[in-house]
Automatic annotation (TrEMBL):
InterPro entries in alphabetical order: 2Fe-2S_ferredoxin-like_sf, 2Fe-2S_ferredoxin-type, 2Fe2S_fd_BS, Beta-grasp_dom_sf, Cbr1-like_FAD-bd_dom, FAD-bd_FR_type, FNR_nucleotide-bd, MRET
Classification via PROSITE patterns: 2FE2S_FER_1 (PS00197), 2FE2S_FER_2 (PS51085), FAD_FR (PS51384)
Species assigned in the record: Pseudonocardia autotrophica (Amycolata autotrophica)
Zinc-finger listed as a keyword: no
Protein name in UniProt: Phthalate dioxygenase reductase
Domain FAD-binding FR-type: start-end pairs: 41-139
Any coiled-coil regions, as ranges: none
Gene name of this polypeptide: ophA1
Pfam families: FAD_binding_6, Fer2
Cofactors required: FAD
């Protein structure tokens, strides 16, 4: 794929600086280290304004507030409290300049509780949202390569529009089962068709990093959102000094996990194998224990740590995130009642 010249080369730096103002400093500090998303304590009532289906299994939902909504930057997501009380994260895929609505696009996950509820929403339904918050900020760079797998296009779409508006060079590779299952990227191809490669692979499999990177600008900052194997493959294929930013919608595989025991205060002792989390084994016996992001940052599964200490745990003092925290020693005791 060739890179077309930027449409407005002279105003690029100023426009992108506006888009990336907050993100840039933190992002340059470490392009590869994942930063935790800042906690959000703001909760807003919203009303479903419209529900459309750009693909058979993707619902695009517009959420309106009672007035102008809090601003956001490309890469941000909302925590949405669904009708049953379940909390799920959805990336904002609309226009940050439009403060009248938040737009999200949600793929129906087979057996998925939250996505099924989103697909049953109708205009007029009232919900609550928290955020927006941004763990995937767009930082200033001379050129960009965007890689999206399936519904991973949602945070990427506003990035593409912002970079295009700034007149900077960019390329997008969007992969998926088939063209009919790939939302948003057809519209982005309308911005500059020679910069967009929509790559149906005919399967639910993940293309190799070599296939994804073929013909792309070797110096561009890379932004990737898709299935964990896609993110991992691209990260491994890039040189260590290449700027690489990614976001996952589902948890990364557990690496080098040591087995331990989690005891529920006043309840059973549960062995946690090396390749599972405390949350997984606790939900085997207590399926009502709530989770959301499964990456440690949303707070849904943070509980009181009664005994022992943990590693890799973003929860505050005296707490543990069951979805990612692992015992430092052989055993921890947790209190599910907090
Ligand atoms: C920061 C962030 C942004 C996100 N943005 C979006 C977005 O824009 N659009 C969107 O559709 N989703 C997005 N997600 C994912 C979304 O929040 C849910 O995790 C996802 O929709 C599944 O939730 P569920 O309640 O339907 O499934 P659950 O009821 O939680 O899970 C049901 C079953 O499906 C499995 N499962 C869960 N997720 C997946 C998956 N992705 N693929 C295959 N199997 C799965 C589970 O392991 C379980 O076995 C985002 C997640 C994060 C962390
Ligand atoms: S599920 Fe979000 S912190 Fe554990």
């Amino acid at each position: 794929m060739s890179v077309a010249p930027p449409p407005h080369p002279n105003r690029s730096a100023r426009a992108l600086a506006t888009v990336t103002a907050v993100a840039q400093k933190a992002s340059l500090r470490s392009a590869r280290r994942r930063r935790p998303a800042a906690p959000v304590d703001r909760e807003l009532p919203v009303e479903v304004r419209s529900v459309t289906y750009p693909c058979p299994d993707v619902a695009e939902v517009e959420l309106a507030g009672s007035g102008p909504l809090p601003g956001w930057r490309p890469g941000a997501h909302l925590d949405v409290v669904l009708p049953s009380g379940l909390l799920r994260q959805y990336s904002l895929c609309g226009d940050p300049a439009d403060r009248s609505v938040y737009r999200i696009a949600v793929r129906a996950v087979p057996g998925g509780s939250g996505s099924a509820q989103v697909h049953r929403l109708t205009p007029g339904a009232r919900l609550r949202v928290r955020g927006p918050r941004n763990a995937f900020p767009l930082a200033a760079a001379p050129s960009y390569l965007f890689l999206a797998g399936g519904i991973g296009i949602t945070p990427i779409a506003p990035m593409v529009r912002a970079v295009h508006a700034a007149g900077l060079p960019w390329q997008l590779v969007h992969t998926g089962r088939d063209l009919a299952s790939m939302p948003l990227s057809e519209g982005l191809a309308g911005l500059a068709s020679d910069r967009v490669r929509r790559r149906p692979d005919g399967t639910a499999g993940v293309p190799s990093a070599e296939e994804l990177l073929a013909g792309t600008d070797p110096g561009a900052a890379v932004y990737c959102c898709g299935p964990p194997p896609m993110i991992d493959a691209v990260r491994r294929a890039l040189p260590a000094d290449r700027r690489f930013h990614s976001e996952r919608f589902s948890p990364p595989p557990i690496r080098d996990g040591r087995p331990f025991t989690v005891a529920l205060a006043g309840g059973p002792e549960l062995p946690v194998p090396a390749d599972r989390t405390a949350l997984d084994v606790i939900r085997d016996v207590r399926p009502d224990v709530a989770y959301s992001c499964r990456q440690g940052f949303c707070g849904t599964c943070h509980v009181r740590l009664v005994e022992g200490s943990t590693v890799g745990d973003p929860a505050g003092p005296g707490l543990t995130a069951l979805c990612v925290g692992r015992a430092e020693g052989a055993r921890v005791v947790v209190d599910l009642g907090r």
